[in-house]
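Pasting as-is:
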Amino acid sequence: MTELADRTVILILQELAEDLQRPAAALEVTSEDEARLVLRALLDGYADGDPRTAQDAPPLPRSAAEAIGAGRRLLAAAQRDEDAGPVARALTQDPPADDQLSVEAAAAVVVVLAAMIAFLQTKVSIKIQRDADGTKVEFELLKRASSDSLLRTLARLMADILRGSGGQGPGPV
């Protein structure tokens, strides 16, 4: 992953997010703030006492440098994943042309957050409920698996990606 230029990583993640997005899921997360809300809900709600996700939950990326580091780790994890792997590997082997997609360095944070959400949506359906009491995030499994087990695994993987120890963490989810 280090051989890819930063801009190429962002272009790959932008295309990966678009390719992984399910049509029905595309409307659920509509802003950077909602993406942050979903990721924070996953990290906080499914830590289950795991100190790697609960006590020292990593901050979500705010700068392009933080986003690119997390993006490289996300891309490495996506390549190993049974659902995202074929698309991630194909995009890494044949990255989008630099003129094919336009992305500014400042948009790196948004692209990485969108790719993280798209990756999660290969495993869970994300429901955002907005009402007078605020906004609530719910996760519903797409595959048969132990709900808490899969969500804890996803929370650990996202925490590792954000913290800098991802990419070599859990195998296929």
